[in-house]
Amino acid sequence: MFDYPTLSPQGITEQSFETIRRELSAANIILPSDTAPIVERMIHSTADFDFATITRFSTGAVQAGIHALGNGCAIITDVNMIRMGINASRVQQQGGTLHCFVADDDVRQRAAETGHTRSALGIRMAWEQGLLQDSIVVVGNAPTALFEIIRLMLEKEVRPALVIGVPVGFINVVESKEAFMKTTVVPWIVTQGRKGGSAVAVAIVNALLRLATGTRATETD
Amino acid sequence: MFDYPTLSPQGITEQSFETIRRELSAANIILPSDTAPIVERMIHSTADFDFATITRFSTGAVQAGIHALGNGCAIITDVNMIRMGINASRVQQQGGTLHCFVADDDVRQRAAETGHTRSALGIRMAWEQGLLQDSIVVVGNAPTALFEIIRLMLEKEVRPALVIGVPVGFINVVESKEAFMKTTVVPWIVTQGRKGGSAVAVAIVNALLRLATGTRATETD
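Above: the input entities. Below: the C-alpha coordinates describing the complete assembly.
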Protein backbone atom coordinates (compact mmCIF):
# COMPACT_ATOMS: atom_id res chain seq x y z
CA MET A 1 0.00 0.00 0.00
CA PHE A 2 1.41 3.33 -1.10
CA ASP A 3 1.11 5.98 1.59
CA TYR A 4 1.66 9.62 0.93
CA PRO A 5 2.02 12.59 3.25
CA THR A 6 -1.36 13.85 4.36
CA LEU A 7 -1.72 17.14 6.10
CA SER A 8 -4.94 19.02 6.65
CA PRO A 9 -5.48 21.73 4.02
CA GLN A 10 -5.23 24.24 6.89
CA GLY A 11 -1.96 22.71 8.05
CA ILE A 12 -0.49 22.93 4.55
CA THR A 13 -1.54 26.55 4.19
CA GLU A 14 -0.18 27.50 7.63
CA GLN A 15 3.20 25.94 6.88
CA SER A 16 3.24 27.58 3.43
CA PHE A 17 2.69 31.03 4.86
CA GLU A 18 5.33 30.45 7.54
CA THR A 19 7.79 29.58 4.76
CA ILE A 20 6.84 32.63 2.68
CA ARG A 21 7.19 35.00 5.66
CA ARG A 22 10.50 33.46 6.73
CA GLU A 23 11.96 33.85 3.23
CA LEU A 24 10.65 37.40 2.82
CA SER A 25 12.23 38.27 6.16
CA ALA A 26 15.52 36.61 5.14
CA ALA A 27 15.49 38.76 1.99
CA ASN A 28 14.91 41.88 4.14
CA ILE A 29 11.57 42.51 2.47
CA ILE A 30 9.04 44.13 4.79
CA LEU A 31 5.47 44.27 3.52
CA PRO A 32 3.06 46.89 4.89
CA SER A 33 0.46 45.22 7.12
CA ASP A 34 -2.50 46.17 4.92
CA THR A 35 -1.04 44.85 1.67
CA ALA A 36 0.85 41.83 3.12
CA PRO A 37 -2.15 39.43 3.04
CA ILE A 38 -2.57 40.15 -0.68
CA VAL A 39 1.08 39.87 -1.66
CA GLU A 40 1.62 36.72 0.42
CA ARG A 41 -1.27 35.06 -1.43
CA MET A 42 0.23 36.09 -4.79
CA ILE A 43 3.51 34.44 -3.80
CA HIS A 44 1.62 31.41 -2.50
CA SER A 45 -0.07 30.98 -5.90
CA THR A 46 3.10 31.34 -7.97
CA ALA A 47 6.09 30.50 -5.73
CA ASP A 48 7.52 33.66 -7.28
CA PHE A 49 8.92 36.19 -4.78
CA ASP A 50 9.19 38.84 -7.51
CA PHE A 51 5.60 39.75 -6.64
CA ALA A 52 6.84 41.15 -3.31
CA THR A 53 8.65 43.92 -5.18
CA ILE A 54 6.63 44.46 -8.37
CA THR A 55 3.14 44.72 -6.85
CA ARG A 56 1.98 48.32 -6.46
CA PHE A 57 -1.09 49.55 -4.58
CA SER A 58 -2.65 52.99 -4.83
CA THR A 59 -3.29 54.53 -1.41
CA GLY A 60 -6.31 52.86 0.17
CA ALA A 61 -6.69 50.26 -2.60
CA VAL A 62 -7.01 47.33 -0.20
CA GLN A 63 -9.63 49.11 1.89
CA ALA A 64 -11.51 50.13 -1.27
CA GLY A 65 -11.57 46.50 -2.39
CA ILE A 66 -12.72 45.17 0.97
CA HIS A 67 -15.43 47.84 1.15
CA ALA A 68 -16.72 47.14 -2.36
CA LEU A 69 -16.79 43.37 -1.82
CA GLY A 70 -18.55 43.85 1.52
CA ASN A 71 -21.20 45.87 -0.31
CA GLY A 72 -21.77 43.02 -2.76
CA CYS A 73 -20.23 44.71 -5.78
CA ALA A 74 -20.07 43.24 -9.27
CA ILE A 75 -16.74 41.65 -10.22
CA ILE A 76 -15.87 41.80 -13.93
CA THR A 77 -12.99 39.68 -15.26
CA ASP A 78 -11.29 39.80 -18.65
CA VAL A 79 -11.14 36.00 -19.06
CA ASN A 80 -13.28 33.09 -17.86
CA MET A 81 -10.37 31.32 -16.20
CA ILE A 82 -10.24 34.14 -13.62
CA ARG A 83 -14.00 34.09 -13.11
CA MET A 84 -13.75 30.35 -12.46
CA GLY A 85 -10.91 30.72 -9.94
CA ILE A 86 -12.63 33.34 -7.77
CA ASN A 87 -14.35 31.90 -4.69
CA ALA A 88 -17.95 32.23 -5.88
CA SER A 89 -19.55 31.22 -2.59
CA ARG A 90 -17.75 34.06 -0.76
CA VAL A 91 -18.86 36.48 -3.48
CA GLN A 92 -22.48 35.33 -3.14
CA GLN A 93 -22.25 35.46 0.67
CA GLN A 94 -21.69 39.22 0.33
CA GLY A 95 -24.46 39.60 -2.26
CA GLY A 96 -21.96 40.15 -5.06
CA THR A 97 -21.95 38.91 -8.65
CA LEU A 98 -19.32 37.60 -11.10
CA HIS A 99 -19.22 38.47 -14.81
CA CYS A 100 -17.09 37.77 -17.85
CA PHE A 101 -18.25 38.60 -21.38
CA VAL A 102 -15.23 37.49 -23.41
CA ALA A 103 -17.00 34.39 -24.78
CA ASP A 104 -20.35 36.16 -25.31
CA ASP A 105 -21.72 35.65 -28.86
CA ASP A 106 -22.23 39.39 -29.32
CA VAL A 107 -18.65 40.06 -28.26
CA ARG A 108 -17.32 37.44 -30.68
CA GLN A 109 -19.31 38.94 -33.54
CA ARG A 110 -18.22 42.51 -32.79
CA ALA A 111 -14.59 41.40 -32.52
CA ALA A 112 -14.79 39.75 -35.94
CA GLU A 113 -16.37 42.90 -37.40
CA THR A 114 -14.15 45.53 -35.79
CA GLY A 115 -10.76 43.89 -35.24
CA HIS A 116 -10.85 44.87 -31.55
CA THR A 117 -9.91 42.18 -29.06
CA ARG A 118 -12.68 40.16 -27.45
CA SER A 119 -11.25 41.05 -24.03
CA ALA A 120 -11.61 44.81 -24.64
CA LEU A 121 -15.11 44.35 -26.05
CA GLY A 122 -16.02 42.21 -23.05
CA ILE A 123 -15.18 45.13 -20.76
CA ARG A 124 -17.16 47.46 -23.05
CA MET A 125 -20.18 45.16 -22.79
CA ALA A 126 -19.94 45.21 -18.98
CA TRP A 127 -20.05 49.01 -19.20
CA GLU A 128 -23.05 48.92 -21.58
CA GLN A 129 -24.86 46.73 -19.07
CA GLY A 130 -24.19 49.30 -16.35
CA LEU A 131 -21.96 46.94 -14.39
CA LEU A 132 -18.68 48.90 -14.24
CA GLN A 133 -19.62 51.73 -11.88
CA ASP A 134 -18.51 50.82 -8.30
CA SER A 135 -17.40 47.38 -9.48
CA ILE A 136 -14.10 45.55 -9.17
CA VAL A 137 -12.56 45.05 -12.62
CA VAL A 138 -9.95 42.30 -12.89
CA VAL A 139 -7.60 42.21 -15.88
CA GLY A 140 -5.20 39.26 -15.77
CA ASN A 141 -4.47 38.73 -19.44
CA ALA A 142 -5.34 41.37 -21.99
CA PRO A 143 -3.62 44.76 -22.01
CA THR A 144 -6.35 45.96 -24.39
CA ALA A 145 -8.89 45.36 -21.59
CA LEU A 146 -6.89 47.71 -19.37
CA PHE A 147 -6.69 50.30 -22.16
CA GLU A 148 -10.47 50.00 -22.61
CA ILE A 149 -10.99 50.79 -18.90
CA ILE A 150 -8.85 53.92 -19.28
CA ARG A 151 -10.98 54.93 -22.28
CA LEU A 152 -14.24 54.37 -20.37
CA MET A 153 -12.96 56.35 -17.37
CA LEU A 154 -11.88 59.26 -19.60
CA GLU A 155 -14.75 59.34 -22.09
CA LYS A 156 -17.68 57.95 -20.10
CA GLU A 157 -16.62 58.99 -16.60
CA VAL A 158 -17.23 55.51 -15.26
CA ARG A 159 -15.61 54.86 -11.85
CA PRO A 160 -14.98 51.28 -10.73
CA ALA A 161 -14.37 50.89 -6.99
CA LEU A 162 -11.07 49.11 -7.72
CA VAL A 163 -9.15 48.00 -10.80
CA ILE A 164 -6.83 45.01 -10.53
CA GLY A 165 -4.47 45.42 -13.49
CA VAL A 166 -2.18 42.41 -13.75
CA PRO A 167 -2.02 41.44 -17.44
CA VAL A 168 0.98 39.26 -18.34
CA GLY A 169 3.13 39.25 -21.44
CA PHE A 170 5.54 40.89 -23.79
CA ILE A 171 3.65 43.23 -26.12
CA ASN A 172 1.79 46.34 -24.84
CA VAL A 173 1.59 44.85 -21.34
CA VAL A 174 4.10 47.13 -19.61
CA GLU A 175 2.74 50.08 -21.60
CA SER A 176 -0.87 49.35 -20.58
CA LYS A 177 0.04 49.25 -16.90
CA GLU A 178 2.10 52.45 -17.04
CA ALA A 179 -0.68 54.24 -18.94
CA PHE A 180 -3.22 53.01 -16.44
CA MET A 181 -1.28 54.10 -13.35
CA LYS A 182 -0.71 57.54 -14.89
CA THR A 183 -4.28 58.29 -15.90
CA THR A 184 -6.45 56.42 -13.46
CA VAL A 185 -8.76 58.24 -11.05
CA VAL A 186 -9.79 55.09 -9.16
CA PRO A 187 -7.99 52.81 -6.66
CA TRP A 188 -5.80 50.15 -8.25
CA ILE A 189 -3.53 47.15 -7.68
CA VAL A 190 -0.97 46.63 -10.47
CA THR A 191 2.03 44.37 -11.05
CA GLN A 192 4.73 46.46 -12.69
CA GLY A 193 6.54 44.94 -15.63
CA ARG A 194 5.67 41.86 -17.65
CA LYS A 195 4.48 39.53 -14.92
CA GLY A 196 0.91 38.85 -13.83
CA GLY A 197 -1.69 36.44 -15.19
CA SER A 198 -4.84 34.56 -14.26
CA ALA A 199 -3.45 32.82 -11.17
CA VAL A 200 -2.10 36.13 -9.85
CA ALA A 201 -5.41 37.92 -10.48
CA VAL A 202 -7.35 35.18 -8.71
CA ALA A 203 -4.97 35.26 -5.74
CA ILE A 204 -5.58 39.00 -5.29
CA VAL A 205 -9.38 38.77 -5.47
CA ASN A 206 -9.56 35.74 -3.17
CA ALA A 207 -7.26 37.45 -0.64
CA LEU A 208 -9.55 40.51 -0.65
CA LEU A 209 -12.58 38.22 -0.27
CA ARG A 210 -10.98 36.61 2.80
CA LEU A 211 -10.48 40.05 4.32
CA ALA A 212 -14.02 41.15 3.40
CA THR A 213 -15.62 38.05 4.91
CA GLY A 214 -13.38 37.86 7.99
CA THR A 215 -12.01 34.50 6.84
CA ARG A 216 -8.65 33.51 8.27
CA ALA A 217 -5.78 33.79 5.79
CA THR A 218 -4.98 30.09 6.20
CA GLU A 219 -8.48 28.92 5.33
CA THR A 220 -8.54 27.17 1.96
CA ASP A 221 -10.74 28.32 -0.89
CA MET B 1 -11.18 60.41 -28.01
CA PHE B 2 -8.75 58.06 -26.30
CA ASP B 3 -6.94 55.81 -28.74
CA TYR B 4 -4.95 52.82 -27.69
CA PRO B 5 -2.55 50.57 -29.57
CA THR B 6 -4.44 47.96 -31.53
CA LEU B 7 -2.67 45.03 -33.05
CA SER B 8 -4.27 41.88 -34.38
CA PRO B 9 -4.21 39.05 -31.84
CA GLN B 10 -1.95 37.19 -34.31
CA GLY B 11 0.37 40.18 -34.56
CA ILE B 12 0.66 40.40 -30.78
CA THR B 13 1.40 36.69 -30.47
CA GLU B 14 3.98 36.77 -33.26
CA GLN B 15 5.83 39.68 -31.67
CA SER B 16 5.61 38.01 -28.25
CA PHE B 17 7.22 34.81 -29.52
CA GLU B 18 9.91 36.79 -31.34
CA THR B 19 10.74 38.50 -28.04
CA ILE B 20 10.78 35.23 -26.11
CA ARG B 21 13.07 33.54 -28.67
CA ARG B 22 15.41 36.54 -28.82
CA GLU B 23 15.77 36.62 -25.03
CA LEU B 24 16.25 32.85 -24.76
CA SER B 25 18.95 33.11 -27.39
CA ALA B 26 20.60 36.04 -25.60
CA ALA B 27 20.66 33.89 -22.44
CA ASN B 28 22.29 31.05 -24.42
CA ILE B 29 19.33 28.77 -23.76
CA ILE B 30 18.70 26.33 -26.60
CA LEU B 31 15.42 24.43 -26.42
CA PRO B 32 15.07 21.08 -28.23
CA SER B 33 12.77 21.48 -31.24
CA ASP B 34 10.12 19.06 -29.93
CA THR B 35 9.74 20.70 -26.52
CA ALA B 36 10.31 24.33 -27.58
CA PRO B 37 6.66 25.01 -28.56
CA ILE B 38 5.55 23.90 -25.09
CA VAL B 39 8.17 25.80 -23.10
CA GLU B 40 7.74 28.99 -25.16
CA ARG B 41 4.00 28.93 -24.38
CA MET B 42 4.74 28.49 -20.67
CA ILE B 43 6.99 31.56 -20.77
CA HIS B 44 4.37 33.42 -22.81
CA SER B 45 1.75 32.75 -20.08
CA THR B 46 3.94 33.77 -17.14
CA ALA B 47 6.68 36.09 -18.47
CA ASP B 48 8.93 33.88 -16.34
CA PHE B 49 12.01 32.52 -18.12
CA ASP B 50 12.68 30.12 -15.24
CA PHE B 51 10.40 27.68 -17.06
CA ALA B 52 13.08 27.30 -19.75
CA THR B 53 15.33 25.60 -17.23
CA ILE B 54 12.97 23.90 -14.73
CA THR B 55 10.66 22.14 -17.18
CA ARG B 56 11.50 18.45 -17.61
CA PHE B 57 10.11 16.07 -20.23
CA SER B 58 10.36 12.28 -20.18
CA THR B 59 11.56 10.89 -23.51
CA GLY B 60 8.72 11.03 -26.02
CA ALA B 61 6.36 12.92 -23.69
CA VAL B 62 5.41 15.53 -26.30
CA GLN B 63 4.69 12.88 -28.94
CA ALA B 64 2.68 10.85 -26.38
CA GLY B 65 0.58 13.92 -25.61
CA ILE B 66 -0.01 14.80 -29.26
CA HIS B 67 -0.93 11.19 -30.02
CA ALA B 68 -3.38 10.92 -27.11
CA LEU B 69 -5.05 14.24 -27.94
CA GLY B 70 -5.30 13.23 -31.60
CA ASN B 71 -7.09 10.07 -30.47
CA GLY B 72 -9.63 12.12 -28.53
CA CYS B 73 -8.44 11.13 -25.06
CA ALA B 74 -10.03 12.23 -21.80
CA ILE B 75 -8.29 15.15 -20.05
CA ILE B 76 -8.61 15.15 -16.25
CA THR B 77 -7.61 18.27 -14.29
CA ASP B 78 -7.13 18.72 -10.54
CA VAL B 79 -8.92 22.10 -10.40
CA ASN B 80 -11.72 23.72 -12.41
CA MET B 81 -9.66 26.78 -13.27
CA ILE B 82 -7.47 24.57 -15.47
CA ARG B 83 -10.45 22.85 -17.07
CA MET B 84 -11.83 26.29 -17.90
CA GLY B 85 -8.56 27.50 -19.44
CA ILE B 86 -8.11 24.57 -21.82
CA ASN B 87 -9.31 25.25 -25.37
CA ALA B 88 -12.51 23.16 -25.25
CA SER B 89 -13.34 23.53 -28.93
CA ARG B 90 -9.96 22.04 -29.94
CA VAL B 91 -10.53 19.17 -27.49
CA GLN B 92 -13.98 18.49 -28.96
CA GLN B 93 -12.61 18.79 -32.50
CA GLN B 94 -10.47 15.72 -31.73
CA GLY B 95 -13.34 13.87 -30.05
CA GLY B 96 -11.82 14.37 -26.61
CA THR B 97 -13.46 15.19 -23.27
CA LEU B 98 -12.62 17.41 -20.29
CA HIS B 99 -13.21 16.40 -16.65
CA CYS B 100 -12.68 17.81 -13.17
CA PHE B 101 -14.28 16.27 -10.09
CA VAL B 102 -12.90 18.52 -7.35
CA ALA B 103 -16.23 20.29 -6.81
CA ASP B 104 -18.34 17.13 -7.15
CA ASP B 105 -20.75 16.66 -4.22
CA ASP B 106 -19.54 13.10 -3.63
CA VAL B 107 -15.95 14.29 -3.53
CA ARG B 108 -16.80 17.05 -1.05
CA GLN B 109 -18.57 14.57 1.22
CA ARG B 110 -15.75 12.01 1.11
CA ALA B 111 -13.19 14.72 1.82
CA ALA B 112 -15.15 15.83 4.89
CA GLU B 113 -15.40 12.20 6.07
CA THR B 114 -11.83 11.06 5.39
CA GLY B 115 -9.64 14.17 5.73
CA HIS B 116 -8.16 13.51 2.26
CA THR B 117 -7.92 16.50 -0.04
CA ARG B 118 -10.71 17.09 -2.55
CA SER B 119 -8.09 17.24 -5.31
CA ALA B 120 -6.79 13.72 -4.56
CA LEU B 121 -10.33 12.37 -4.26
CA GLY B 122 -11.22 14.05 -7.56
CA ILE B 123 -8.45 12.05 -9.27
CA ARG B 124 -9.68 8.89 -7.49
CA MET B 125 -13.19 9.49 -8.80
CA ALA B 126 -11.83 9.86 -12.35
CA TRP B 127 -10.19 6.45 -11.89
CA GLU B 128 -13.44 4.92 -10.50
CA GLN B 129 -15.24 6.18 -13.59
CA GLY B 130 -12.67 4.45 -15.81
CA LEU B 131 -11.35 7.73 -17.21
CA LEU B 132 -7.66 7.57 -16.23
CA GLN B 133 -6.41 4.80 -18.53
CA ASP B 134 -4.85 6.40 -21.69
CA SER B 135 -5.91 9.86 -20.49
CA ILE B 136 -3.95 13.06 -19.97
CA VAL B 137 -3.92 13.95 -16.27
CA VAL B 138 -3.13 17.59 -15.46
CA VAL B 139 -2.10 18.56 -11.93
CA GLY B 140 -1.48 22.30 -11.55
CA ASN B 141 -2.21 22.84 -7.88
CA ALA B 142 -2.43 19.92 -5.50
CA PRO B 143 0.61 17.75 -4.71
CA THR B 144 -1.79 15.22 -3.16
CA ALA B 145 -3.37 14.76 -6.60
CA LEU B 146 0.06 13.82 -7.96
CA PHE B 147 0.63 11.42 -5.05
CA GLU B 148 -2.78 9.87 -5.75
CA ILE B 149 -1.75 9.22 -9.37
CA ILE B 150 1.39 7.45 -8.14
CA ARG B 151 -0.77 5.31 -5.84
CA LEU B 152 -3.18 4.40 -8.65
CA MET B 153 -0.29 3.51 -10.98
CA LEU B 154 1.31 1.29 -8.32
CA GLU B 155 -1.75 -0.33 -6.77
CA LYS B 156 -4.25 -0.35 -9.64
CA GLU B 157 -1.86 -0.49 -12.58
CA VAL B 158 -3.62 2.39 -14.32
CA ARG B 159 -1.58 3.97 -17.12
CA PRO B 160 -2.42 7.49 -18.29
CA ALA B 161 -1.00 8.41 -21.71
CA LEU B 162 0.69 11.48 -20.18
CA VAL B 163 0.84 13.13 -16.77
CA ILE B 164 1.43 16.87 -16.58
CA GLY B 165 2.72 17.42 -13.04
CA VAL B 166 3.11 21.12 -12.35
CA PRO B 167 1.70 21.78 -8.86
CA VAL B 168 2.89 25.04 -7.29
CA GLY B 169 3.76 25.83 -3.72
CA PHE B 170 5.85 25.35 -0.63
CA ILE B 171 4.71 22.22 1.21
CA ASN B 172 5.02 18.72 -0.30
CA VAL B 173 5.16 20.19 -3.81
CA VAL B 174 8.84 19.53 -4.56
CA GLU B 175 8.53 16.12 -2.84
CA SER B 176 5.47 15.14 -4.92
CA LYS B 177 7.26 15.94 -8.17
CA GLU B 178 10.45 14.09 -7.17
CA ALA B 179 8.43 11.05 -6.05
CA PHE B 180 6.47 11.12 -9.27
CA MET B 181 9.53 11.33 -11.56
CA LYS B 182 11.18 8.45 -9.66
CA THR B 183 8.25 6.04 -9.69
CA THR B 184 6.30 6.81 -12.81
CA VAL B 185 5.95 4.32 -15.64
CA VAL B 186 4.16 6.73 -17.97
CA PRO B 187 5.30 9.79 -20.00
CA TRP B 188 5.40 13.04 -18.06
CA ILE B 189 6.02 16.77 -18.16
CA VAL B 190 7.08 18.23 -14.80
CA THR B 191 8.33 21.61 -13.52
CA GLN B 192 11.08 20.92 -11.01
CA GLY B 193 11.00 22.90 -7.80
CA ARG B 194 8.22 25.03 -6.38
CA LYS B 195 6.93 26.73 -9.50
CA GLY B 196 3.97 25.70 -11.62
CA GLY B 197 0.26 26.48 -11.30
CA SER B 198 -2.96 26.71 -13.25
CA ALA B 199 -1.73 29.12 -15.91
CA VAL B 200 1.34 26.95 -16.53
CA ALA B 201 -0.73 23.78 -16.76
CA VAL B 202 -3.13 25.39 -19.22
CA ALA B 203 -0.24 26.67 -21.36
CA ILE B 204 1.16 23.13 -21.66
CA VAL B 205 -2.15 21.52 -22.63
CA ASN B 206 -3.06 24.26 -25.11
CA ALA B 207 0.39 24.03 -26.72
CA LEU B 208 -0.06 20.27 -27.14
CA LEU B 209 -3.55 20.88 -28.57
CA ARG B 210 -2.08 23.29 -31.13
CA LEU B 211 0.42 20.62 -32.20
CA ALA B 212 -2.27 17.89 -32.27
CA THR B 213 -4.63 19.97 -34.40
CA GLY B 214 -1.97 21.44 -36.70
CA THR B 215 -2.76 24.95 -35.44
CA ARG B 216 -0.01 27.53 -35.92
CA ALA B 217 1.78 28.45 -32.68
CA THR B 218 0.82 32.11 -33.12
CA GLU B 219 -2.90 31.42 -33.43
CA THR B 220 -4.76 32.66 -30.35
CA ASP B 221 -6.91 30.40 -28.18
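Note for the figure: Chain B touches chain A through 50 residues (CB under 8 Å).
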